[in-house]
Fold this protein.
Amino acid sequence: MLIDLDPVAFQIGPFIVYWYGVFMALAFAAGAWYLYTQARKRGMDEDFLLNFTILVILAGIAGARMMFVLINYPQWFIYDPVQVLKIYQGGLAWHGGLLGGMLAGWWYTSRKGMSFNSLADLAVPGLAVGYFMIRIANIFNQEILGRSTDFWFDRWPAQPIGSIIGLTLLARYFYLKQKSLPTGYQFWSFIFYHQLLRSAVEEMVRENPLALGGYIIPHWGLGFFTLAQISTPLIMAFAYWMMRRSYRLPPAP
């Protein structure tokens, strides 16, 4: 069954604030606070960190929107470009946000002669918390739904499953933080295991269109292959290659 929740958190005159935006803002704040405080302990410059954080957040939002439109409504770029800018109407893609933020962060750190991997490692808690909180926000919007099953729960709880993946990866980060790992390993291993868990668990139960002659197991409500599952092996292979390359780097502080 679906829970009927109001997606609007509050409204002041014509100004409407949605729960999705509230949870996203909280995730950004938590991730930025952790990255900033930990990087300052390592002696990084305050102005550099603030500029880095703002740039990555803005690029992440832009990338998430671009990827969503490219996959779902590519005609907007030609026939209705204004629609592309209407983020307040919903429509963001995780992979696009990650790619946009990563490219912006890599460009800025390279320009400033700083280590991208060091800051990427510190971004992992924010990414994990963000995935956890956005999946909760999806419940309010009644999106990212699970497939129907013949089991007693009627429909797979796809959003809570996604949130559990985020919490699992957050716990893994702090567990690994106690070990002496090379710089960059935390970030690239997060990408690797997030893709693995999302593809093997969340995407299997999520009500997404299937591609390449996909198949659904009706009684269990499991399906494969979605577009995300098809792209996962390539992303995992790249993340694994970067994990291996990280062993050439010194241990993270």
Summary: Residues 46-72 form the longest helix (27 residues).
